[in-house]
């Protein structure tokens, strides 16, 4: 099955709402409108910028697609500082990053919490971008494929096969995030292929061939074409390089 490539820019905790507007406009004006028929381009701003990005949406152009970097597993209530699925859906979000390694590390998010967030995202009609990836010591021990597959299966626990079709998976080796040390195309394909095979085993070939699997970790315009040569690599989750409008648009154009 032909899968539409997806390039998602994770802005992390960067840019105030004025800067978010400027960057969004820069990306939108740097790519021809018909480009978005071919590739889905998504921005993932901090919560405080989502409303500003929403005001720039325009029909089916780039910025009809944006999302959030986290979600509460709860719909409402006494959870100070958290943002819920109904709030994000109301703001027009299409995607939510779930289980990013920075959330797992700094907020002690377990696979169980990640699974609840995946379910909360789907419940409110948005697509989770479920991140999995190994630390350097896991790769050095040679158990990275099993590690990532385990994270994937735990993150999807309890979902029906037709729900899994709407999930985007991002393979993000932790040692490659923000370090400038990008995985080789063969490394990326090895894990992305194994994740798709695990989906096929559990949910069947129709589902596994529909799910988009991204690579993330020091992606930039200079390495995106090579990384996307892998038959199971359907795009990228991009951190640092998504903060520079010119560079991000160039990267998207090469995807
Ligand atoms: C990320 O934050 O998901 C990421 C991949 O960051 P970077 O591209 O900066 O490595």
Automatic annotation (TrEMBL):
<feature type="binding site">
    <location>
        <position position="218"/>
    </location>
    <ligand>
        <name>substrate</name>
    </ligand>
</feature>
<comment type="pathway">
    <text>Carbohydrate degradation; glycolysis; D-glyceraldehyde 3-phosphate from glycerone phosphate: step 1/1.</text>
</comment>
<dbReference type="InterPro" id="IPR000652">
    <property type="entry name" value="Triosephosphate_isomerase"/>
</dbReference>
<feature type="binding site">
    <location>
        <begin position="10"/>
        <end position="12"/>
    </location>
    <ligand>
        <name>substrate</name>
    </ligand>
</feature>
<keyword id="KW-0963">Cytoplasm</keyword>
<feature type="binding site">
    <location>
        <begin position="239"/>
        <end position="240"/>
    </location>
    <ligand>
        <name>substrate</name>
    </ligand>
</feature>
<dbReference type="InterPro" id="IPR020861">
    <property type="entry name" value="Triosephosphate_isomerase_AS"/>
</dbReference>
<protein>
    <recommendedName>
        <fullName>Triosephosphate isomerase</fullName>
        <ecNumber>5.3.1.1</ecNumber>
    </recommendedName>
</protein>
<keyword id="KW-0413">Isomerase</keyword>
<dbReference type="Pfam" id="PF00121">
    <property type="entry name" value="TIM"/>
</dbReference>
<comment type="similarity">
    <text>Belongs to the triosephosphate isomerase family.</text>
</comment>
<feature type="active site" description="Proton acceptor">
    <location>
        <position position="172"/>
    </location>
</feature>
<comment type="function">
    <text>Involved in the gluconeogenesis. Catalyzes stereospecifically the conversion of dihydroxyacetone phosphate (DHAP) to D-glyceraldehyde-3-phosphate (G3P).</text>
</comment>
<keyword id="KW-0324">Glycolysis</keyword>
<comment type="subunit">
    <text>Homodimer.</text>
</comment>
<keyword id="KW-0312">Gluconeogenesis</keyword>
<comment type="pathway">
    <text>Carbohydrate biosynthesis; gluconeogenesis.</text>
</comment>
<dbReference type="GO" id="GO:0016853">
    <property type="term" value="F:isomerase activity"/>
</dbReference>
<feature type="binding site">
    <location>
        <position position="178"/>
    </location>
    <ligand>
        <name>substrate</name>
    </ligand>
</feature>
<dbReference type="InterPro" id="IPR035990">
    <property type="entry name" value="TIM_sf"/>
</dbReference>
<feature type="active site" description="Electrophile">
    <location>
        <position position="100"/>
    </location>
</feature>
<dbReference type="InterPro" id="IPR022896">
    <property type="entry name" value="TrioseP_Isoase_bac/euk"/>
</dbReference>
<dbReference type="InterPro" id="IPR013785">
    <property type="entry name" value="Aldolase_TIM"/>
</dbReference>
């Amino acid at each position: 099955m032909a899968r539409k490539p997806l390039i998602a820019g994770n802005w992390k905790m960067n840019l105030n709402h004025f800067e978010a507007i400027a960057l969004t406009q820069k990306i939108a004006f740097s790519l021809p409108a018909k480009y978005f028929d071919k590739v889905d381009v998504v921005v993932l701003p901090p919560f405080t910028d989502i409303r500003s990005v929403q005001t720039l949406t325009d029909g089916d152009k780039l910025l009809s697609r944006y999302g959030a970097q986290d979600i509460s597993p709860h719909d409402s209530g006494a959870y100070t500082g958290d943002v819920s699925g109904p709030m994000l859906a109301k703001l027009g979000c299409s995607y939510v990053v779930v289980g990013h390694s920075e959330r797992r590390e700094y907020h002690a998010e377990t696979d169980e919490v990640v699974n609840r967030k995946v379910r909360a995202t789907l419940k409110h009609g948005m697509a989770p971008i479920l991140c999995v990836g190994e630390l350097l010591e896991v790769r050095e021990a040679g158990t990275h494929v099993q590690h990532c597959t385990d994270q994937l299966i735990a993150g999807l626990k309890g979902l029906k096969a037709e729900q899994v079709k709407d999930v985007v998976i991002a393979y993000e080796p932790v040692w490659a995030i923000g370090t400038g040390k990008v995985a080789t195309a063969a490394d990326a394909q090895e894990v992305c292929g194994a994740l798709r095979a695990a989906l096929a085993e559990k949910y069947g070939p129709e589902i596994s061939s529909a799910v988009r699997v991204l690579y993330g970790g020091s992606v930039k315009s200079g390495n995106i074409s090579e990384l996307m040569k892998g038959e199971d690599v359907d795009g990228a989750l991009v951190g640092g390089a998504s903060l520079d409008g010119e560079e991000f648009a160039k990267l998207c154009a090469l995807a």
